[in-house]
Specification:
With 158 residues, the chain is mainly beta. The chain has one helix at residues 36-48; strands at residues 9-18, 24-31, 33-34, 54-61, 80-82, 87-92, 97-104, 115-124, 132-143, 148-157. The chain has one domain (9-157).
Length: 158
């Protein structure tokens, strides 16, 4: 997404599903979209000299999760959302790149059923319902209770 003629924010999402034996079952890489709230947070950070942490991630499934991305969206669109990964980390790669990696371990988000994840988003703020920075809609990613799911968002300001 272009902010002006000189600055572009782009990113990609990498999704990996591992079976209980640790073997890779599914692997996808694709683009994501930056929301209006995401752009506002970047501008706020430039103006105020600081930003709140970009350190939350969520997944969505069920009715509405495959709704096309729109820059005005402020939350995941699925009827069922899970914004509580087992672990999450935000890492500055260098002066222009950062990444967020989240892990949904065994039995998360469901201990009893396979879920078909269709959307992934990242969020700013201290609350789980923080402002959505980015969102991507994917082909269904099936995660069984015995699987683990690792998602890495990488962002670049160029």
């Amino acid at each position: 997404m272009k902010i002006n003629d000189r600055i572009t924010i782009k990113g990609q999402v990498e999704v990996k599903v591992f079976g209980p034996d640790g073997k890779l079952k599914q692997h996808e890489i694709g683009p994501n979209g930056i929301t209006n709230d995401g752009l506002e947070k970047i501008v706020d950070g430039l103006v105020s000299g600081g930003m709140t942490a970009h350190n939350k991630m969520g997944i969505g499934f069920g009715v509405g999760a495959n709704t096309a991305f729109a820059v005005g969206q402020t939350d995941l669109q699925g009827a069922t959302k899970n914004k509580t990964p087992t672990s999450i980390s935000t890492t500055k790669i260098d002066g222009k790149n950062w990444k967020i990696t989240a892990l949904w371990d065994v039995n998360n988000p469901s201990p009893s059923a396979t879920v078909g994840i269709e959307e992934i988003g990242t969020f700013w703020g201290t609350a789980i319902s923080g402002e959505m920075f980015s969102r991507t809609v994917r082909a269904i990613i099936n995660k069984a209770p015995i699987d683990s799911l690792e998602i890495t968002y990488t962002f670049t300001i160029a």
